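Project standup — Tuesday

K.O.: blocked on the structure for the chain from last sprint. Re-posting the sequence here as requested.
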Amino acid sequence: SLSSPFPQRKSKITASRKLLLKSLMLAKAKEEWDQEIVDKQAEKERYLAERITPLHTSGLSLSQLQDLCRELHEKVEIVDEERYDIEAKCNHNTREIKDLKIKVLDLRGKFKRPPLRRVRVSADAMLRALLGSKHKVSMDLRANLKSVKKEDTEKERPVEVGDWRKNVEAMSGMEGRKKMFDAAKSPTGQ
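H.V.: unblocked you, prediction finished:
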């Protein structure tokens, strides 16, 4: 048999041992996760107890209750403003993170372009896609072409059908040359 240059090493850990280790790791991770949830809940309760003082409304007069309500409203407004500011910062940061992720993908060159297909698009549809709903004018390219009438083309090139030998014989003598000279002279003279 052929021996490979890199002999396969036998795993020192058996499959059953690997499975046991995985289950122990998962059990430990679940235990830590449960403990983290309990710690977060205790931290939340401690923070709320520190921030929120218990209300004693018994035995207060009407004016004292009104003052207490005004004070609570002021606190609520301050907390609401802080919440709004933090939310705005959070939204700004998430947008910035999104933009930076896109830039990173562009710089890495991992952006995959979809396969493009040829699509026939009229000039109107193309302008509508580019300009959106602003595009009102229909662009008919054929309307801008110069129209040519058949009668004009026929007038420009009168075609005489005849025997070419007769023309050659008529032009061959002095009379023919005189006719050619007169014919050439007459359009410019008029």
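K.O.: great, moving the ticket to review. Residues 16-54 form one domain. The chain is about 65% helix and 0% strand.
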